[in-house]
Write a structure and sequence with these properties.
It comes from Fictibacillus phosphorivorans. Keywords: Transit peptide. 29% of the residues are buried. A seven-stranded mixed sheet has the order 1-3-2-4-5-6-7, covered by helices on one side. By secondary structure, the protein is an alpha/beta fold. The chain has one domain. The protein has three helices and seven strands.
Length: 167
């Protein structure tokens, strides 16, 4: 897997979203180009469904949500399958998402740096990714650390410690 390259990240704010608002419900849509390795991040009150390839479904979606204790978490999802793929294809998709998730989260977090200037407490909020699948072995939730780990690409390693990648 290649390391995160901020020069290949393109960020779009969907109005009326700013780098200040919203906080709760702030949504991220991250897509990419397999050809150019560019990442495209849309930030808004809604997901940017227009940017999602309905056949590939290889986007990562995330949003800021409050948990039962009213603390913010960055909660994301990766669509592994909805029953349309064989188990073998679902397994490949799952492994690809797991392998690329650190890169995807780097794009999401790094692309919204001004937001963290306005809400510095959120740099230590937990990140959880839900892998969505009809196959139980691929339907899981994984903890990916905190935004702090993804904010500086010059010190960011493309691979997190194993304990952060396990369900």
């Amino acid at each position: 897997m290649s390391a995160f390259n901020p020069q290949k990240l393109f960020v779009k704010l969907i109005p009326p979203t700013t780098f200040i608002q919203p906080v709760e419900g702030r949504k991220y849509t991250l897509t990419h180009s397999d050809i150019t390795a560019e990442l495209f991040l849309a930030i808004g009150y809604v997901y940017n469904y227009k940017s999602i390839n309905p056949v590939m479904r290889d986007e990562v979606l995330a949003e800021w949500k409050k948990d039962l204790h009213r603390r913010f978490n960055l909660v994301g999802k990766a669509y592994v399958d909805g029953g349309e793929f064989t188990q073998k294809v679902a397994e490949i998709r799952f492994k690809t998402f797991k392998k690329q998730m650190t890169l995807a989260l780097s794009g999401i977090i790094y692309g919204d740096r001004p937001f963290y200037t306005n809400y510095p407490a959120l740099v230590d909020a937990p990140i959880f990714i839900h892998y969505l699948s009809t196959y139980p072995e691929y339907r899981q939730v994984a903890f990916y650390g905190t935004p702090r780990q993804y904010l500086n690409p010059s010190i960011h390693s493309p691979d997190l410690p194993n304990h952060l990648n396990s369900p």
